[in-house]
Amino acid sequence: MDISLDEIDRRILTVLQQDASITNAELAQQVHVSAPTCLRRVKQLRDAGVIARQVVIVAPEKVGSQLTAIVEITLDVQAADRMEQFETHVAAEVAVLQCYRVSPGPDFVLVVQVTDMPAYHALAHRLFTSHANVRNVKAYFSTFRSKFETRIAV
């Protein structure tokens, strides 16, 4: 279902991206529409897939997940089925937060969150060294996160 976003939809999305835990009444007040209109608009945005899901963002350091790695992966064979096989393989791993096919350069870039370096090594063994089609792995380890954002300008 395609949806054309108007100014009200954009205001709703902007507010919800900042705090999706607010009540419908609070949201309606902030975007200057009635509560029933707001509820209907949010439902339409969900049904159209514009709002993919609502989640809680956890501070990794507060739950013992201290190490963020950005990992470049180059496959040995880049056939479509082998690329999909690799995506399925990494998607099953909870420590992989994001997986992107990229071009040019490596085939994939992953964002990984683990507790520490031994946990990264275990993950690398599970995902990369045991996967016959991985040719090259290059990992970058975050020393400081200066910005983390999930909002998209609408």
Automatic annotation (TrEMBL):
<dbReference type="Pfam" id="PF01037">
    <property type="entry name" value="AsnC_trans_reg"/>
</dbReference>
<dbReference type="GO" id="GO:0005829">
    <property type="term" value="C:cytosol"/>
</dbReference>
<dbReference type="GO" id="GO:0043200">
    <property type="term" value="P:response to amino acid"/>
</dbReference>
<dbReference type="InterPro" id="IPR019888">
    <property type="entry name" value="Tscrpt_reg_AsnC-like"/>
</dbReference>
<dbReference type="InterPro" id="IPR011008">
    <property type="entry name" value="Dimeric_a/b-barrel"/>
</dbReference>
<dbReference type="GO" id="GO:0006355">
    <property type="term" value="P:regulation of DNA-templated transcription"/>
</dbReference>
<dbReference type="GO" id="GO:0043565">
    <property type="term" value="F:sequence-specific DNA binding"/>
</dbReference>
<keyword id="KW-0804">Transcription</keyword>
<dbReference type="InterPro" id="IPR019887">
    <property type="entry name" value="Tscrpt_reg_AsnC/Lrp_C"/>
</dbReference>
<dbReference type="InterPro" id="IPR036390">
    <property type="entry name" value="WH_DNA-bd_sf"/>
</dbReference>
<keyword id="KW-0805">Transcription regulation</keyword>
<protein>
    <submittedName>
        <fullName>Lrp/AsnC family leucine-responsive transcriptional regulator</fullName>
    </submittedName>
</protein>
<dbReference type="Pfam" id="PF13412">
    <property type="entry name" value="HTH_24"/>
</dbReference>
<keyword id="KW-0238">DNA-binding</keyword>
<dbReference type="InterPro" id="IPR000485">
    <property type="entry name" value="AsnC-type_HTH_dom"/>
</dbReference>
<dbReference type="InterPro" id="IPR011991">
    <property type="entry name" value="ArsR-like_HTH"/>
</dbReference>
<feature type="domain" description="HTH asnC-type">
    <location>
        <begin position="5"/>
        <end position="66"/>
    </location>
</feature>
<dbReference type="InterPro" id="IPR036388">
    <property type="entry name" value="WH-like_DNA-bd_sf"/>
</dbReference>
